[in-house]
From TrEMBL:
Keywords carried by this UniProt record: Oxidoreductase
Name the record gives this protein: Prephenate/arogenate dehydrogenase domain-containing protein
GO biological process per UniProt: tyrosine biosynthetic process
Entry-linked PANTHER family: AROGENATE DEHYDROGENASE-RELATED (PTHR43207), OS06G0709000 PROTEIN (PTHR43207:SF1)
UniProt source species: Digitaria exilis
Amino acid composition bias (Low complexity), ranges on this chain: 14-24
Amino acid sequence: MAASPSVRLHHHQPSSWRRSPTPTSNLQFLAARCRWRRLPGAAAARPLRLRATGAAPPPFGSNDSLPGAIEVEEREDQHPPPPQRLKIAVVGFGNYGQFLTRTLVAQGHTVLAHSRSDYSAAAAGLGARFFPDPHDLCECHPDVVLLATSILSAESVVRSLPLHRLRRDTLFADVLSVKEFPKNLLLGALPEEFDIICTHPMFGPESAGNGWAGLPFVFDEVRVGDCPARRARADAFLKIFESEGCRMVEMSCAEHDAHAAGTQFLTHTVGRMLAMLDLRSTPINTKGYESLLRLVDNTCSDSFDLYNGLFMYNKNSTELLNRLEWGMDAVKKKLFDGLHDVLRKQLFDFEVSPEDPAELVVAGGDPDTDEDGEDDGDAVDGDESGSEGNN
């Protein structure tokens, strides 16, 4: 029996075996003994190589086993499996939800959008499907529900979703700028079978205009099941940001909020304070001043609801405001104390010149009194030793 050009046997078989006809029953046995390893993707089957792993067999009979175990080997040049494509429901399809959708669609994921406002035209332009009714959205059984609402509306949106229409092991993730609040919200609102990953991409449409590479992405795997499929889905979701070059930072939600109060909330606070001054560009801008103008533009381009949410739902923000106020008072005190010191020196501590009567008066001298302290009779203040005309 001639072998196929893509099949090669590694050791010589006895001539008696080669001359024997191949019974149908042994062909079926051959198929049962082979171990098939499916190649990734939907590409055409590659040529296979057979490898005989046993020693030379005894003479082949109708009820004997085949000469050694034959297995199908994978080619050495096969490529790694392609990334898993996810069906992602973006709940909250405003500016930030659309910003994320561009990258999700570009990576080949299916995006289902939902929002209280009608963004059907925007969704179609980005290659996503828009669902005005959350029931219709959940009946599509997305792999991931990505919460991209405002912080202030997050709770009402989550509680409005018909969770019973989702698969019992759906992954929920959020991209809110605070983390302990959505963590506690999702743990309290979702069934125990649902997975939860709290994330915060530390960038937005303004700061990520040139791509996501090198920008920090904070995440906390709050609850991910041990099932391999659920683990693979969580990894595939995080891979979205990793493949874009983000700097992946795994951090607890509590630690994130402590850091974010001193970075994000402080930045927004300073930017909005400067905006109250109505700063304008001038012909003599310094680099530092231009940085302040950019800060105002970047922070005030976000809604006040976002800034308010950073304050309301991060317990560290109140302390930061108090510290900021203390810092401003300390700087003002230092400035005014220095000013008072300068004034005191000008009034009391400079050297007196005898040629200038005015300086003598300021320094505490009396031009109408000679060195021995006796009055010369020309005093203008009018006292007991003065002339009668001054009484």
